[in-house]
């Protein structure tokens, strides 16, 4: 490009403005493409209506009338939206005596920070799509009827602080990936059908304060790595075959 200008200042404008404008145009186009395809509150509403369709028994008719397609999603019982992005940030359906399963669509609630469905009768296994909930800080599936193994992908929630899986029918061993959760403070696995050794990797949970493993079929010894957990306040593994 040739810049025919009398002063260096003006030259700068003539020569560098076009590339800048080109970048701005690219940015605007990129933003437009993004907003056209990115999920929004409508995505959350569809996901919640699919979740409702997977609830087979709602004895107190809590969702039956309240969770209607014509209601604004942020006004549904148990739903909290964030003001910044206007997306669902918390879902609390605890203690509602609901029976049902968890559909893969629940993984579309990509702004969810808190998911609490404890004390119901949810059953079956957990869909892999839940790994998309990478903003989760609090997850409570306690006191339900979930079965199958604790999925390996529970080790991939980068922000999770509280993980409650107590009083279910989870089987198999604790996946060693659970040691990958840098923010985890509470891990509650009591009253399941878990077996085998407590993995060494649990010693990597440097923020862990409460670890509940009672009433399972764990064997072996408490791993020496747990001695590395400087913030640990409670470790309980009553009614297992673990040697201290
Ligand atoms: C959500 O996105 C879809 C396209 O994916 C669009 O049709 C719809 O109008 C959007 N809804 C809101 C509330 O922005
Ligand atoms: C659903 O429940 C919420 C919270 O109790 C309430 O504010 C809302 O008005 C209810 N909506 C309908 C349609 O009943
Ligand atoms: C986690 O712990 C295991 C066993 O104690 C160790 O071998 C591994 O290097 C640790 N991983 C990280 C990422 O710290
Ligand atoms: C010990 O744990 C097993 C398996 O979870 C359970 O069935 C049993 O009731 C527990 N026993 C006591 C004394 O808590
Ligand atoms: C964790 O504990 C193990 C066994 O007690 C020890 O060998 C290791 O060096 C410790 N790791 C850290 C990061 O403190």
The chain-level structural class is alpha/beta
CATH level 1 class label of the largest domain: Alpha Beta
Q: Which residues sit in consecutive blocks of at least 5 with pLDDT less than 50?
A: 1-17
Total DSSP E strands: 16
Determine the strand fraction and express it as a percent band. Answer: 15-25%
Helix content range of the residues, please? 10-25%
Organism: Hibiscus sabdariffa (roselle)
Domain Leucine-rich repeat-containing N-terminal plant-type: 43-81
Protein name: Leucine-rich repeat-containing N-terminal plant-type domain-containing protein
Keywords: Leucine-rich repeat, Repeat, Signal
Outline:
This is Leucine-rich repeat-containing N-terminal plant-type domain-containing protein. By secondary structure, the protein is of the alpha/beta class.
Describe this entry's structure for a reader.
Pfam families: LRR_1, LRR_8, LRRNT_2. There is one protein chain. This protein is globular. Residues 1-17 have low confidence and may be disordered. It has two domains: 1-38; 41-236, Leucine-rich repeat, LRR (right-handed beta-alpha superhelix) (Alpha-Beta Horseshoe), CATH 3.80.10.10. The chain has three helices and 16 strands. The strands form two sheets. An eight-stranded mixed β-sheet has the order 1-4-6-8-10-12-14-16. Strands 2-3-5-7-9-11-13-15 form an eight-stranded mixed β-sheet, with no helix packed on it. It is of the alpha/beta class and 244 residues long. It has helices spanning 8-37, 41-53, 62-66, and strands at residues 55-57, 79-81, 88-92, 99-100, 114-116, 121-124, 138-140, 145-149, 162-164, 169-172, 186-188, 193-196, 210-212, 217-221, 234-236, 241-243. 27% of the residues are buried. One 2-acetamido-2-deoxy-beta-D-glucopyranose binds next to loops. The site of one 2-acetamido-2-deoxy-beta-D-glucopyranose (NAG) has 6 residues, from loops.
């Amino acid at each position: 490009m040739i810049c025919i200008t009398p002063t260096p200042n003006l030259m700068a404008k003539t020569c560098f403005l076009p590339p800048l404008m080109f970048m701005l145009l690219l940015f605007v186009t990129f933003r437009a493409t993004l907003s056209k395809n990115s999920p929004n509150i409508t995505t959350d509403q569809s996901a919640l209506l699919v979740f409702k369709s997977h609830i087979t028994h709602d004895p107190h008719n809590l969702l039956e009338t309240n969770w209607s397609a014509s209601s604004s999603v942020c006004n549904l019982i148990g739903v909290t939206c964030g003001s910044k992005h206007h997306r669902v940030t918390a879902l609390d359906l605890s203690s509602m005596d609901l029976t049902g399963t968890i559909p893969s669509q629940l993984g579309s609630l990509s702004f969810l920070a808190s998911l609490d469905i404890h004390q119901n009768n949810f059953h079956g296994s957990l869909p892999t799509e839940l790994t998309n909930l990478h903003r989760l800080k609090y997850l409570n599936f306690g006191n339900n009827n979930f079965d199958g193994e604790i999925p390996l992908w529970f080790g991939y929630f980068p922000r999770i602080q509280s993980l409650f899986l107590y009083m279910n029918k989870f089987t198999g061993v604790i996946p060693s990936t659970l040691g990958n959760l840098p923010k985890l403070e509470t891990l509650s696995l009591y009253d399941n059908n878990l077996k085998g050794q407590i993995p060494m990797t649990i010693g990597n949970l440097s923020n862990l304060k409460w670890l509940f493993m009672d009433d399972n079929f764990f064997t072996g010894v408490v791993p020496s790595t747990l001695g590395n957990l400087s913030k640990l306040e409670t470790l309980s593994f009553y009614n297992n075959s673990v040697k201290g």
